[in-house]
């Protein structure tokens, strides 16, 4: 079975993550309940003729994929695999709005074509002229992890390179629905940060993170992708056992994990899933979080992996990501744990290389 | 007729997401497809919908589309000739 390396990464997020020197001076904590991405210079990556029909999720993905492939010195991957929880929301909303306004007549094709979930993978493939395996996975907050499992299996079974990523975008109408459902924090300003907010809901955002995986280590390699597991439903009592079991499958114990990266999003109703990790299971481990930087969306965990792999490579941890302070004994094995509203749990294990 | 041409340019820019263009960038006799504005077959469908929805004109013979959508001038003339 071949080893899987993360040889390139690209990320468009609420941070200026397409243009930075080191993570240490990149991150700024989000202060509003809904935050859009920091827009990169799209025209530097996408032909003007293609750009006009692309909504932000597609554009962000093409940019992130471009950066990942460039870092990995890869022009045509053996597969393009995308995970998205909600797909191309902006064009879906546009299409449905016109459907209602025009009483189901006068429907134009552009929004419909661009509204499907696999638009992202398709547009990346078109830009690369890549006819290889192209798959899109849609499963709420484990959409990215399912894509990652497929990519990992392909590399382990012999493919040389796979482009895999997670993307979601904010749609105005859908955001309003999330607000009505109480999933977005009501506070207008979060100047004290999400950890101290002690309220329900979270900070909503959007983003695209893509990874060029390969079966050979390169000078640009960030980390080895070891294993990924998803658990659809699980109680707070069971999740610690699941984590221990996941590590045991990989011949590891909790004590051997150097850093644990948690998907804490500040929603007090679902914080207990992480509290067990913080206070008991990983109390002696360096703990990090990232959703105060990325915001929450179905594929925010891809931002978490992007951050964790960066830390694996640079061996330096930005202070703003730390939940506790433990003496650093080298950063080798990193475990990511994420869940959304008590469901869609996932573990991702990476190792420095 | 001049107002109609300006209106058509505004609708084309908005409906076809030509964000980088203003109405001053589109000349009345510019070719809309190919070397001119560079519109494609998906845009053609959008133009057909604009005629139907905003001017109540259905194009019954698709073969005439090439002539009708040649330029802003030809579109405006077609609308003037066929509008109720």
Which key phrases capture this entry?
heterodimer; A: alpha/beta; Peroxisomal Thiolase, Chain A, domain 1; 10-stranded mixed β-sheet; 11 helices; 33% helix; 20% strand; B: 84 residues; mainly alpha; Non-ribosomal Peptide Synthetase Peptidyl Carrier Protein, Chain A; 4 helices; 52% helix; globular
Q: How would the global form of chain B be characterised?
A: globular
- Kindly provide the radius of gyration of chain A, computed on alpha-carbon positions and rounded to a whole number of angstroms: 19 Å
- Gap from first CA to last CA of chain B: 15 Å
Structural category of chain A: alpha/beta
Largest interface: A-B, 12 and 13 residues
Number of helices of chain A: 11
**Low-pLDDT segments, ≥5 res of chain B:** none
Mean pLDDT of chain A: 95
Number of helices in the DSSP assignment of chain B: 4
- What's the CATH topology name of chain B? Non-ribosomal Peptide Synthetase Peptidyl Carrier Protein, Chain A
Helix content of chain B: 40-55%
- Compute the CA-based radius of gyration of chain B: 12 Å
Give the overall form of chain A: globular
Contiguous low-pLDDT stretches of chain A (5 residues minimum) are none
Give the percentage of residues in beta strands of chain A: 15-25%
Biggest beta-sheet profile of chain A: 10 strands, mixed
Q: Number of DSSP strands of chain A?
A: 10
In N-to-C order, the SSE pattern of chain A is EHHEHHHEHEHEEHEHEHHEE
Task: Explain the overall architecture.
- The complex is a heterodimer of chains A (353) and B (84).
- Chain A has 353 residues and is α/β, with parallel strands linked by helices.
- Chain A is built from 11 helices and 10 strands.
- Chain A folds into 2 domains: 4-214, 3-Layer(aba) Sandwich (Peroxisomal Thiolase, Chain A, domain 1); 226-351, 3-Layer(aba) Sandwich (Peroxisomal Thiolase, Chain A, domain 1).
- Chain A has helices spanning 48-51, 56-71, 89-101, 109-115, 119-128, 143-156, 172-180, 236-249, 272-281, 291-294, 300-314; strands spanning 4-12, 79-83, 133-137, 161-168, 207-214, 223-233, 259-262, 286-289, 333-340, 343-351.
- A 10-stranded mixed β-sheet of chain A has the order 3-2-4-5-1-6-10-9-7-8, with helices on both faces.
- Chain B is built from 4 helices and no strands.
- Chain B has a single domain, classed as ACP-like (Non-ribosomal Peptide Synthetase Peptidyl Carrier Protein, Chain A, Orthogonal Bundle), CATH 1.10.1200.10.
- Chain B is an all-alpha fold.
- The two termini of chain B are 15 Å apart.
- In chain B, 21% of the residues are buried.
- Chain B is globular, with a radius of gyration of 12 Å.
- Chain B has helices at residues 2-15, 41-55, 65-68, 72-82.
């Amino acid at each position: 079975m071949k080893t899987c390396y993360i040889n390139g990464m690209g990320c468009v997020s609420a941070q200026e993550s397409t243009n930075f020197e080191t993570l240490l001076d990149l991150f700024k904590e989000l202060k509003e309940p809904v935050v859009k991405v920091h827009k990169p210079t799209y025209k530097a990556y996408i032909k003007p003729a293609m750009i006009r029909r692309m909504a932000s999720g597609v554009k962000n993905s093409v940019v992130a994929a471009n950066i990942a492939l460039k870092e990995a010195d890869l022009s045509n991957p053996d597969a393009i695999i995308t995970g998205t929880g909600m797909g191309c929301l902006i064009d879906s909303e546009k299409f449905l709005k016109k459907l209602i306004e025009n009483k189901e007549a006068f429907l134009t094709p552009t929004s419909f074509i661009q509204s499907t979930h696999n638009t992202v993978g398709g547009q990346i493939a078109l830009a690369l002229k890549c006819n290889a395996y192209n798959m899109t996975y849609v499963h709420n907050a484990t959409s990215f992890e399912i894509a990652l499992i497929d990519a990992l299996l392909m590399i382990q079974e012999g493919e040389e390179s796979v482009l895999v990523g997670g993307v979601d975008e904010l749609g105005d109408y859908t955001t309003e629905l999330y607000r009505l459902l109480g999933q977005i924090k009501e506070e207008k300003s979060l100047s004290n940060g999400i950890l101290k907010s002690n309220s329900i809901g979270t900070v909503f955002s959007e983003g695209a993170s893509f990874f060029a995986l390969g079966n050979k280590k390169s000078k640009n390699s960030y980390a080895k992708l070891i294993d990924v597991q998803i658990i659809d439903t699980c109680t707070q009592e069971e999740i610690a056992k699941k984590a221990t079991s996941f590590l045991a499958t990989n011949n590891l114990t909790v004590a051997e994990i150097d850093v644990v990266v948690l998907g804490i999003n500040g929603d007090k109703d679902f914080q207990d899933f992480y509290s067990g990790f913080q206070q008991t299971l990983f109390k002696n481990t360096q703990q990090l979080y990232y959703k105060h930087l990325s915001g929450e969306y179905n594929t925010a965990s891809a931002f978490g992996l992007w951050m964790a792999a960066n830390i694996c490579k640079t061996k330096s941890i930005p202070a703003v990501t730390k939940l506790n302070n433990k003496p650093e004994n080298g950063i080798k094995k990193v475990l990511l744990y994420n869940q959304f509203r008590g469901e869609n749990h996932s573990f991702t294990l990476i190792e420095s290389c | 007729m001049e107002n109609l041409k300006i209106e058509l340019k505004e609708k084309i820019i908005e409906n076809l997401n030509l964000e980088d263009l203003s109405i001053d960038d589109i000349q009345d006799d510019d070719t809309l497809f190919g070397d001119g504005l560079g519109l494609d077959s998906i845009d053609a469908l959008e133009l057909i919908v604009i005629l139907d929805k905003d001017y109540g004109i259905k194009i019954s013979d698709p073969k005439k589309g090439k002539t009708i959508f040649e330029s802003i001038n030809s579109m405006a003339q077609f609308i003037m000739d066929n509008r109720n």
